[in-house]
Structures are given as structure tokens and as C-alpha cells.
Known about the structure:
The chain is an alpha+beta fold and 508 residues long. It has two domains: 15-183 and 379-421, D-Maltodextrin-Binding Protein, domain 2 (3-Layer(aba) Sandwich), CATH 3.40.190.10; 186-377 and 461-505, D-Maltodextrin-Binding Protein, domain 2 (3-Layer(aba) Sandwich). It is built from 21 helices and nine strands. The chain has helices spanning 15-21, 53-57, 73-80, 82-89, 100-113, 125-132, 140-143, 164-169, 193-207, 219-235, 251-264, 290-304, 315-323, 337-340, 391-404, 407-416, 424-427, 430-434, 448-455, 470-485, 491-505, and strands at residues 34-36, 40-42, 64-70, 92-98, 120-124, 180-192, 329-333, 353-356, 378-385. Strands 3, 4, 5, 6, 7, 8 and 9 form a seven-stranded mixed beta sheet that branches. The protein has a two-stranded antiparallel sheet with strand order 1-2. Strand 1 (34-36) and strand 2 (40-42) form a beta hairpin. Helix 12 (290-304) crosses helix 21 and helix 20 (470-485) packs antiparallel against helix 21 (491-505). The chain is globular, with a radius of gyration of 23 Å. The two termini are 33 Å apart.
Amino acid sequence: MFHIPKKALYKTISRRKFLELGGGTAVALGAGSLAVGLGSVITKHPVHAASSTDAKWRQYEGSKLVFMSENTPPSFAIRDNIKSFYDLTGIEVEILTDGLPTVQQKVGIDLRSGQADYQLNYVQDKPIGSPFADFYADLNQFSLDDTLPLDPQGYGDNVWFENFLDACGVYYERGPIRAFPYDCAVSCTFYRQDLFEKLTKDFEADYGYRMEFTDDTTYKNMVDFAAFFKMMHERDSSIPYGYGQHHGSFGWTTQLDIQRHMYAQNQWLDFAVDDTLGSKNPGPANWGDAQSVKSMEGYKALADVSHPDNLTNGTLELNTVYAAGGVAMQIQYHEFAASVEDAEQSVAAGGKTAYAMGPKGEQSWNVATSNVVNATNCGIGGIGINAGASMDLQRAAFIFASWACSHETQLMVLQGVGGTPTRKSVLELPEVKAARNRPTSMPNALTFEAVYDKGIRSPNMVLGPKLPKANEYHEIVRVGAQQCISGEMSAQEACESIGEELNSMHGI
């Protein structure tokens, strides 16, 4: 989702070049092949249900596909090991990677144009899947086709972690599956256990309880922890600040940060809609109600004792600050553990960092019941197929998508660059179970208890909202939250402003 492996090399294509190419400039690579899109080629060798498995894998031998992806660990690992897919299928796959906002722009242009220059897309659930769901092929038409090499584990809900297929593959209605879970970034707490243990007596003297993380640690406790570290930093600059929120200029990651905080209090949601399906007509926003205001006041209280660059640190920047020793806590996505545990780039490595669920809601911040949860949210990056491509291109693309999400490929990614599995079977392997404990060769596995065993389970997980205008929604929430954090607006003014803008966006 967000983490870029150290020394990563990747190919990008500029928006200008994309528009210049226009989708029809490719040259065919061999006799009997058809050139399509940005150098894509399709070559077909007919197969039947009774054909050998090898023939099914190789039915599009000589073809070329293009996959546009965010620069996430699986895409780098698969790119570096793409020869294994080529040897299996004879299909060449060019993997183009870029930052998520740029990928969103490029695939949006391609999808709406109908050119299908990128037959395969990285479908991040809200920023890409929500606005473009109708442009993706329904994968059900391939997942039961016995003329294709199907995954022996299948593709149903039961093979993925809870809610993952719904998150990236289901939009607005039950039935069609628009993407398979390709990678995931699930929130959990990273904290400097070494500093907590060193300073807890000083903290306890001031606050009357131990400074430690448990499943019952609340957001109000987080405010206390952050205030204590800020005070200690002012006395001794070698001690880091306590905490940093996710802000910066990218609306989605700011929205995810405030969403966790709001959901922890009484499982509050932006709209009265099915959180899994989303809605094309979500109705009036809940922003501006009493619970949203009370929660925003807590969010502001945490911001007031956070790192001084709180408003400028987005997700990538915040992890850099944590790895450099600038903060003692962050709620971060579990794929970042690989970089935090890398002693060459992180002072928080070597057993100094511990991982826990996100904080629980604070009962005193609820306006009604005391329903508080350890709010966890995510970005489940799917892999989807452009419905504008020809049927043979779609079939060839499905072969790659299925392989890219397979048990074997996910294990390869986890062992290589520290990916985050989406298939349950990967976590059942003895070597992965062993990797949950230090010393480990798979540092992301250190987060698996907090994420897979606890965080993604009901009632902690919040998925949505999925909206056709998801990115406009993200930006509205980002601006309103940051106006409150900066003191431009009160919590009530900010929540009411967000609500009014969302209602106006939806014609209410």
C-alpha cells in the first residue's frame, strides 16, 4: 500500500507520455499476434477443459500484458521474480509502478478512455475501486472456468482473511467481484517498548498508572503518553516526542487516521450505509452530530501534544520520523514493520519496537452508550482486470492475477521484501508461525498477532465508506480535520463544515 522497499527500482510512465501514446502505438512481437495498448500483445493457443494443466497455463504463450501498480512490496518482488511466471506461462508482463495518487490518475484516464492500455490494475479499495468499480471485469466469470489454470485453494471468502475480499472486490452490490486481494496494509500501534520500560516510573509518578500498551489502552491514555513524552523532550532533547498523526496533503491517509479515531468511539460512521458495500447514494452525512464533535475534540487534544510537524507528516513521512527516533509511538500500517526492523535505516530496530492493536475508544468521549472498540482500518490493495480489454486479454490477465495472489507467490513476497499476505494459508505455515517471534527473518510477521489475530476481527475493523466520489470525500475530511487541528475552526465548526460539504457533494 505505502511502504517503498529500500533501494527500490521501478519503471514509471509520465502522464504526458501516456497521452502521447494514446493506446495504439504498439508493435506486434511475433507472427499471429495482435498488438494492443502500451506494447501489449495477445497470442492464443486454444485449450479445452480436458487439456493438460501445462497447456492451460501456456494457452497465451507469446502474449504481453501491462500491469499498472502502486509501488508496494508485492509488485517489486514479483517484478524481480517475473521470470518464474514467464517460464510457467510464456506470458511477458511489464509492471509499471508509481505513487498511489499518480496510479489513480493514470488508471482513471485509461479506464474511462476504453483503450485498456493497462489490462491489469492495482485496485486500492477506496481511492481506485470505489470510483472506478464499474470499469473492472467481474472475476467470477473466470474463477469457475475450467479452461483456465485455477488456484487449487479457490477464490472464495474463506481463503482470504476476514473482510479482505469484500474490501477490495465488492462495491455497491453483492455478486460481482472486481478484484482479488493482492496486498494489505492494516493499522496497528508501533511503540518504543524500550523507552516505555525506561520511563514508566516517571510517568506513573505524574499520572498514577503504568505507561504500557494493552488491549485496553484508550485514546485518552494516548493523550497522556504523548503529553508526557513531549514534556520529557522539552527537558531532554534526546527523548523523542510521543506521537504523530497522519496528515500531509494526501486526503485518503488523513481520512483513515481520523476514521480510526471516530470509529473507536461508539463505532461511529460517516453515513448510515452498509460499511462493506458502500453506496452510490449515501444520504445525509453524520458529520456535525454530537458524537462526531465529541470525538473531534479528542482528536484535537491528541494533536495538541503530538510532534511539532504533525500537520505536514503524511504516512511515509511519519514512518521516517519514527524510524529516525523522532516519536515514540505511531499508529502505522503493518507492512512498515519491515523498514522499522531494518537496523540500517531505523534506530527503532533490534527489539526496541513492540506492536499492539490500535487504542480503544475512550468511554468519557462517548455521548451515549459506552461502546468502545480497538478501531482498525486498512487499505486492501486488489488486482483487477480492465473490462475494456478484449476477452482474450482479460483471460490472460486473469492467469497473472491468479498467480500473483497465490499462496506460493505471497510466501515468496513475505520472505523477500516483507509483504503482507492476504491468504490465510500463508500464516498457517510453520516457518511463518515461527517468524512471529524474535529473532525473525520475516519482520512483518511481528505484527501478525495485533493485525490478523485481533485487529481485523469484529467489532474492531472498519472498512468504508465506499463512495463514487470517494476521493472528493477524502479531501473534504482532510481539510476539515486539519482546520480543526490548526485552530482555524473549533471541533464543532469543523464537523459541521465537513457535513455540509459532503451533503452538498451528494446533492442534499
